User: Fold this.
Amino acid sequence: MQRDEIPPGTLYLLILKTLARSGEMHGYEIANSIQRTSDDVLQVEEGSLYPALQRMLIKGWVTAKWGTTAGNRRARYYQLTPAGRKQLTLAMTQFERVIGAITRVIAAV
Amino acid sequence: MNWLRELGRRIWMLARRRQFDADLEEEMRLHLETRQQEHLQWGMQEDDARAAARRRFGSVTALREMSHMAWGWEWFEHFAQDIHYSLRMLRKSPGFAAVAGLTLALGIGANTAIFSVIDSVLLSPLPYPDPQQLVAMKQNDSLQNVIDIQRQTRTLSQGGGVNIESMDYTGGTQPIQILAAYVDAGLLETFRVPPMLGRIISPDEDVKGGPRNIVASYHFWQDFLNSDPHALGKTIPLSGSDYTVIGVMPAGFALPREHADVFVSLWVAYPEAAPYRGVHFMRTYWRLKPGVTLSQAQADLSTIDRRLAEEYPDNERDRETLVVPLQQWLTGDVRPALLVLFGAVGLVLLIACANFAGLLMARAIARQQEFVIRASLGAGRSRLIRQALTESGFLAIIGGAAGLLLAKWGTGFLVSLKPAELERFTGIHMDAHVFLFVFGISLLTGAVFGLIPAWSAARADVAESLKEGARGSTASPFSQVLRQLLVTAEFALALILLVGAGLLMKGFSRLRSVNPGFNQTNVTTMHLQLPATRYAEIPPQTGFRRQVLARLNSLPGVDAAMVTDIPLGGNYLSHSFVIDGRPPVPVGAEPETQTLSVMGDYFRVMQIPIRAGRSFTSMDHEGQPLVAVVNEEMVRKFFQHENPLGARIDWSRRAGPHQWMTIIGVAQDVKHSGLNQPVDPAVYAPFPQSDEAWRRWMTLAIRTPGASAKFIEEVKKQVWSVDSQIPVSEVHTMEDLMGVSLAQQRFNMLLLGLFAALALILAAVGIYGMMAYRVGQRMHEIGIHIALGAQRRDVLRLVLGDGAKLAFFGIAIGIAGAIVLSRVMKSLLFEVKPTDPVTFSLVTILLAIVALAACYIPARRAMRLDPMVALRYE
Assistant:
């Protein structure tokens, strides 16, 4: 099956959106969720989630707290903050604008 | 505020980075294991499952690094590592750390201290508004001339004159002599400092017969008016008259050079002197109009000078008024000394930096292999450079911290031994800017020379260097030459400083051995001033003087006399005179001589030898023929071909017929104005025969073994038993006055001596370090020499010759530099030529000995070398 690298810079958007949809998640769940929702088209190099999450922690877009998984293991659960929600809206608008523009360029034959 | 919160989170993460590391680790492990589990469930082999999980995850190490980078602290972590590593390296070579740190500490500390003093004295602004407008006139002037200048000038906005006189304050329990500034109304206006209370003297009060008003200084208001806020309108008794307080000046106000307790109008307090144009006794201060340059003002004043000279040729024929910016005029005396010290500071800083650089380079060469190995193991160039910078920067900071302490202490030390000229500058303190400046320079030195190892390691061909490194000599020719240059420069600079110090020392010892013309041991002096109200005429003055001397001389073991102005006391009175029988001299061109009145056997008390004729006796009093004793300089200048004894002189421009004084004796010359000052012609005459009633002051000279405080009280009691209203002031011993006269020279000598010693030590350390290193480098070669039969002597010659070459070049360059530079010290040297050959030779020998001694230690090590060990050493 063809798997595509995600376009650069959109990883934050994907994580933000994923968290917005499902509330609390740990890293493994986020990676799986992105894959599943994109019908396995978007392939994240899973490890790169973690530096991104660290950065988002610093930006104050997400918070993290330790919890227990269904399999009874310790895992760090990430959750969107109000600032994160605001960032998501901002990133969405920007993304839509760019995609819209690209689509128009491609469609204009 | 978002960035602030973000910074807060960053710091939080930094503080808890261990925890975050562990969290991240656990998180990633969980991820990997879960994925692996998943793969296993799909039926993969365990190893394959792990590999697949890892593949999907990416490099854990790289990701961990990236996470750290997300925090934005990786520079800090590297920095902490570098510091840690530097500390370890410095601990491994404590000798190097101590010498480098000490070099910097001395360089930074001494420089900051000296520069702070220079900064406060030469560069700090005067405490008056618009100080750049203020000027002083180099010559004193009379009130009448001041008034004319005020009227005629087109370049000066304000100005006035001041003369400091003592007045007696009799409002307290004991009569006290205070200093009064006799001023005109323009003077206080010129400084534009408003009074704290009341007002200053107005022009309509500053007239003959004006009201007796005073403006008090802050100190006078504090000490004598009890800081009374309602002091205005109070009357106080001064020299027999009542004066009304009309104003109080603020605490920070003082005249530029004069100390004054109160300010009074000259017209009111001293109406006798005010009308005389020819008596130039006022110091004058002026303010330039806005936009006027100094040369414009000078041209203006020269025009006025010419006009005054035409109008009053008798008195003002030789007017040559010189306008000087106030700041420059104030610092004039100390300026050359401070500038020389400033130069010395610069030289020592250069030496210290050269030494630091040399040390860092030696170390760099020794550690080159280490750097090359690290480079070959994959350390990036920037990482290596950062490491090197951290190490030298760390050293510079340690040195700087020690230097800060030294600077604080040093500034205090300098202030504690400052000469009288610096007394005025009370605000001298260590200057933070200066410290930062000097510190910056040493940091820069550390940066530049600390970079060399990293730089050459980054350049080096790793394989080649490692091969060569095995043989233990990797010094590049470039850095060898650079180090030799540094050591040579150090010696040159040290020689210049040593010559400067040597010249000052020689001058000082010359000065100390100057014969002052009197014997200063066991002589105490005190100043007395008679008030004009009760002692307006000569007879009561003579009566008072006779009684005081009689009472003092009746004390056991006391030999007392009096003179108007004591040598080295700072006062000087001169008159123009004529010699009987000589062709007349035009008015205004008469010769000048110092004039002194004496009573009692002054020459015996001061032990001033009489060279010819006789001294005064008790018979030389009023009603007797007028007599005078002159000094040797007077004879040299005016009686070269004539016996002075029996010749007659008188003050010129007498209103009536001449009253000739017959010269009866010649006394030895006395250094009146300072040990380093030339002697002027002088005429001594008895107090009772003087016809100048305004000489109401006198200085007691009392020879007695061991003048205790109790003795001084006894003298005061005797004076007050004659007149209880006479203040006794300025109690000194002649030895103190000699000490004051030497103080400035001693200050210069001490400071430059300290610098020279510092330079010598640093240069010695520099050449020692260099030679020790070179011997270490040449172990192998020397070992072969010895193995081939070289004697110890040959080895010694080899090593010493190596060092001597550098020292020789340094000394030669230094001598050339010193010949050029020592000329600027000319004004500081007493009877020593700036190119004094004795000083130059002694300094050269000293420096050569130090250089050889510094080279001898490594040379001895080379001599004792066991060739077997040396050859195995590699």
Observations:
- The mean pLDDT of chain A is 84.
- Strands of chain A lie at 4-5, 25-26, 42-43, 62-68, 74-80.
- The interface with chain B takes residues 26-28, 31, 45-48, 50-52, 54-55, 57-60, 66, 69, 73-76 of chain A (CB under 8 Å).
- The first helix of chain A runs from residue 11 to 22.
